[in-house]
């Protein structure tokens, strides 16, 4: 691995990415590959915080939309993220990585409550910190939670690992001629309504001047490539 370009990163992993090709549940082969890469990052001295989505089990607004109260559906989504956090923590621990799970909603029997200074202390000690339950509030996505935690822990960059290899001007699954951006500004993302993150997450990232790099998790080695400064995926940043 080339010399890391970032000291502290916030890695956002979608729940669907952890499900592999199945889209639901957990693919432990995929998770093992991701955790191998995270371990190598720690060995290189990179501090890693992780926010995990819950879409492989439950997506609040999508799965509960029109059928149940939005707040309750979102709380169910927060619980789904904790399932992923615990599974990811277990795989990391099997690989010898020291890890802590912190949740925005207290569940002390299985995780630490989120405390900013404690999270930073863990990172400085070389521990991976996995943040669960999103922001702890309904109506906010886990992408927004990722930006919020990145700002709170003073991360150098947000690594957005998804099931797509970058930001396009239209849906590449629908339009075979969709154009992929190597670099795009927050303003352009908001003006074009591009599906990088939701508008709240994008605005929060812009306000705090935190660059976002979106790339495909299909090849977990992309995490190392991005941290090493390779041009992978799409960089979203200010002017």
Strand ordering within the main sheet: 4-3-5-2-1-6-10-11-9
Strand content: 15-25%
CATH structural architecture: 3-Layer(aba) Sandwich
State the assembly state of the protein chains: single chain
| Overall number of domains | 1
Keywords:
9 helices, 239 residues, nine-stranded mixed sheet, two-stranded antiparallel sheet, Carbamate kinase, alpha/beta, single chain, 38% helix
Explain the overall architecture.
The protein has 239 residues and is of the alpha/beta class. The chain has a single domain (8-237), classed as 3-Layer(aba) Sandwich (Carbamate kinase). The protein is 38% helix and 19% strand. The protein is built from 9 helices and 11 strands. The chain has helices spanning 15-18, 28-43, 60-63, 70-94, 116-124, 142-152, 186-192, 199-207, 221-227; strands at 8-13, 47-52, 99-103, 112-113, 128-132, 157-162, 167-168, 180-181, 183-185, 212-216, 234-237. The strands form 2 sheets. It has a 9-stranded mixed beta sheet with strand order 4-3-5-2-1-6-10-11-9, with helices on both faces. The longest helix is centred in the middle third of the chain and has 25 residues, at 70-94. The radius of gyration is 17 Å and the shape is globular. The model has no long low-confidence stretch (mean pLDDT 93). ATP binds at residues 12-15, 55, 59, 163, 168, 171. It is an enzyme of class 2 (transferase).
